[in-house]
From TrEMBL, chain A:
Keywords: Electron transport, Mitochondrion, Transport. The electron transfer flavoprotein serves as a specific electron acceptor for several dehydrogenases, including five acyl-CoA dehydrogenases, glutaryl-CoA and sarcosine dehydrogenase. It transfers the electrons to the main mitochondrial respiratory chain via ETF-ubiquinone oxidoreductase (ETF dehydrogenase). Heterodimeric electron transfer flavoprotein that accepts electrons from several mitochondrial dehydrogenases, including acyl-CoA dehydrogenases, glutaryl-CoA and sarcosine dehydrogenase. It transfers the electrons to the main mitochondrial respiratory chain via ETF-ubiquinone oxidoreductase. Required for normal mitochondrial fatty acid oxidation and normal amino acid metabolism. ETFB binds an AMP molecule that probably has a purely structural role. Gene3D superfamilies: HUPs. GO terms for cellular component: electron transfer flavoprotein complex; mitochondrial matrix. GO terms for biological process: amino acid catabolic process; fatty acid beta-oxidation using acyl-CoA dehydrogenase. InterPro entries: ET-Flavoprotein_bsu_CS, ETF_a/b_N, ETF_b, ETF_beta_N, Rossmann-like_a/b/a_fold. This is Electron transfer flavoprotein subunit beta. It comes from Paramormyrops kingsleyae. Heterodimer of an alpha and a beta subunit. Residues 25-217 form the Electron transfer flavoprotein alpha/beta-subunit N-terminal domain. It comes from the Eukaryota. It is found in: Mitochondrion matrix. GO terms for molecular function: electron transfer activity.
């Protein structure tokens, strides 16, 4: 039986918020904006809690990297059924520059420290859409990966993962320990119940720094500029099909 | 948001189904936009979590159906049971009998959030919660074990039976008699306007066991299948259509004396104590409807154009929106303050609950009505949710003690020498 699952949860700008670019074009406005758990991370937590309910894993540990506020996100994971949380404290400029490379290094270090044998992450975050952390974590640990999972079945020390790929569905069998990233149709995340929210208060969130894990969070990327997508331009009406074809040819479309 | 714009610009409107508007609506109401009316301000982290679950549940499980429930008069049993699984069936009932053991303030926050999804259904849930609390608080250990777990899980539903055809505001003059015969009481009489009647399994009935006035009233728990218990026709109402309202009729209805809550003569007291909380709950439901309406109105003002610009440029409408927001926040503060006072058992609790109910139900109805006006002709169409909030809220100014009776309670509190 797998001892421990690490689940990564990211605090992102809520999906329904209208995102605005900062006037200095260095990023988007996050102050005072509603944040919540990345939807794919919710699915990851749900899958981990389900495994625990089936008694296939012993402990679910929720991990988040960021400033003090990410503890809210960890609490939500605890209210959904995670056993304890780890807050990796990263703030200020380091947090602004935090990306998949740094997070995957942190996850790899934690996996070793906590002796986890399964890591479940969301397939991507809805703010940066990187879709890299799971893959990088697996590579750093030299563990097999099952990404875009729409079904996960744990059989002893083997993991069967059905992946949603462009051509359809692909089923892979992984040796544990392994990394899985959750896709939309993996499950429907549960609501936290009132009793679970109250129990979550008593669950422990330990705080560590990247330095304690021997991880260097310096970024290898520099954001030069952030801009809104170009405004949609008005279309042009044409009278005949010949006009349409010639306009398409002019525009280099055909 | 762009979808909302396309929907609300006239021509394409009629082509849209209620369902797609419902989806837009549920996305708007789910995420608080403007921070000055954010209902999570001043709450503890734990309360914010409760509120989040309630908002999520309201947006996903209730809002998409609220129009249909109103139109088809559906009593949404499965949805309410789902809510009960999350702990919403007995929010302030003690945990040893299946309740969530939360405070009045936590309860108010939860009902306010749920009400944004469907005010009528949430209001019924609050009545159910009130009955569960009454049995939890005034019941014997056997009665608590017998009824509370099923009520908290909403395996069984409850109704509160005080009002009669001849006694509404003058509740203490009720006539339904309960004559002691051996180890039973035999009930004769009828109750009017009972929410949930006909569907509910458990009826908490205030009836006369003694002489005239409040001291002659006792409280009995009557089960649905009891011989001699029958129901009137389902009333046709302006709102609150997701819960059935019927008369409850007792004809030589024999109820075990073991079903009496508390002692003979304590019934009126029990009923009034239940109503203190009930008034906060109803006021909280009003808050939710008003909050949703303010958000909808705000969104509409930024999208609808007349005279060459969006309505949000009109100073009159800006000022009107500001007034609505101010009324909302003021109401919310009153309700939460009353909830805190009731929780602590302060001396001002009863008067404060009455003030909160009076103020919030009146103000929130005005808010929803003004929001409807901002939608113009569209506001009057059933394709839009604001009219349902208006219709559902109208009765909050009448039941659980009319707003006139609230004034009686408050003035009595002011004019009685202490």
């Amino acid at each position: 039986m797998a001892a421990r699952v690490l689940v990564g949860v990211k605090r992102v700008i809520d999906y329904a918020v209208k995102v605005r670019v900062k006037p200095d074009n260095t990023g988007v406005v996050t102050d005072g904006v509603k944040h919540s758990m990345n939807p794919f991370c919710e699915i990851a937590v749900e899958e981990a809690v389900k495994l625990k309910e089936k008694q296939l894993v012993k402990e679910v540990v929720a991990v988040s990297c960021g400033p003090q506020q990410v503890q809210e996100t960890i609490r939500t994971a605890l209210a959904m059924g995670a056993d304890r949380g780890i807050h990796v404290e990263v703030s200020g400029k380091d947090y602004d520059a935090l990306g998949p490379l740094q997070v995957s290094k942190i996850m790899a270090a934690l996996a070793k420290k906590e002796e986890a044998n399964l890591i479940i992450l969301g397939k991507q975050a809805i703010d940066d859409d990187c879709n890299q952390t799971g893959q990088m974590t697996a590579a750093l640990l030299d563990w097999p990966q099952g990404t875009f999972a729409s079904e996960v079945v744990l059989e002893g020390d083997k993991l069967k993962v059905v992946r949603e790929v462009d051509g359809g569905l692909e089923t892979v069998k992984l040796d544990m320990p392994a990394v899985v990233t959750a896709d939309l149709r993996l499950n429907t995340p549960r609501y936290a119940t009132l009793p679970n929210i109250m129990k979550a208060k008593k669950k422990k969130i330990s705080v560590v720094k990247p330095g304690d894990l021997g991880v260097d969070v310096a970024s290898r990327l520099e954001v030069l500029r952030v801009e809104e997508p170009p405004q949609r331009k008005a279309g042009v009406k044409v009278e005949t099909v010949e006009d349409l074809v010639s306009k398409l040819k002019e525009g280099g479309r055909i | 948001m762009a979808l909302a714009g396309r929907l609300l610009n006239g021509f394409r409107l009629r082509q849209c189904t209620s369902r797609s508007i419902g989806l837009v609506f549920s996305s708007i109401q789910r995420r608080g936009i403007a921070s000055c009316i954010d209902p999570s301000i001043g709450l503890t982290d734990e309360q914010k979590e409760f509120q989040k679950v309630a908002f999520d549940f309201a947006a996903k499980e209730m809002a998409p159906h609220m129009a249909e429930w109103d139109d088809k008069e559906v009593f949404p049993v499965e949805t309410m049971r789902k809510a009960a699984q999350l702990g919403f069936g007995g929010i302030y009932v003690q945990p040893d009998v299946g309740g969530s053991g939360l405070s009045r303030l936590d309860t108010s926050i939860i009902f306010e959030a749920l009400s944004t999804g469907c005010t009528s259904t949430t209001a019924y849930m609050s009545i159910h919660n009130m009955c569960a609390w009454m049995i939890d608080t005034f019941g014997s250990p056997e009665q608590r074990k017998m009824y509370c777990p099923d009520l908290c899980s909403m395996q069984k539903f409850a109704s509160y039976c005080l009002t009669e055809p001849g006694s509404g505001s003058d509740a203490a003059s009720l006539l339904t008699s309960a004559q002691r015969k051996g180890d039973h009481y035999v009930l004769n009489g009828s109750k009017a306007f009972i929410s949930g009647a006909g569907e509910s399994d458990v009826y908490v009935v205030m009836c006369r066991t003694g002489g005239k006035g409040p001291k002659g009233i006792s409280c009995l728990v009557v089960e649905k299948s009891t011989p001699g218990l029958s129901f009137g026709k389902k009333e046709k109402k302006v709102g609150w259509n997701s819960q059935p309202t019927r008369a409850v009729i007792f004809e030589d209805c024999a109820v075990p004396a073991a079903n009496r809550l508390g002692q003979e003569g304590e019934g009126f007291n029990i009923a009034m104590k239940g109503l203190n909380g009930g008034r906060i709950n109803i006021a909280s439901c009003s808050l939710g409807a008003a909050h949703a309406s303010v958000q909808l109105a705000r969104e509409h003002l930024t999208v609808r154009k007349q005279f060459g610009e969006t309505l949000s440029k009109s100073q009159f409408l800006q000022f009107r929106l500001a007034e609505m927001a101010t009324r909302l926040v003021a109401s919310r503060l009153m309700v939460r303050q009353a909830a805190a006072s009731l929780q602590e058992g302060r001396d001002d609790a009863v008067a404060l609950c009455s003030m909160a109910k009076l103020f919030a139900t009146d103000e929130c109805f005005t808010i929803c009505n003004q929001a409807l006006q901002m939608f113009g002709g569209y506001g009057y169409l059933k394709d839009y949710p604001v009219q349902q909030f208006v219709r559902d809220l109208r009765v909050h100014q009448i039941l659980e003690g009319t707003n006139e009776v609230m004034r009686m309670i408050i003035s009595r509190s002011l004019l009685t020498d202490s």
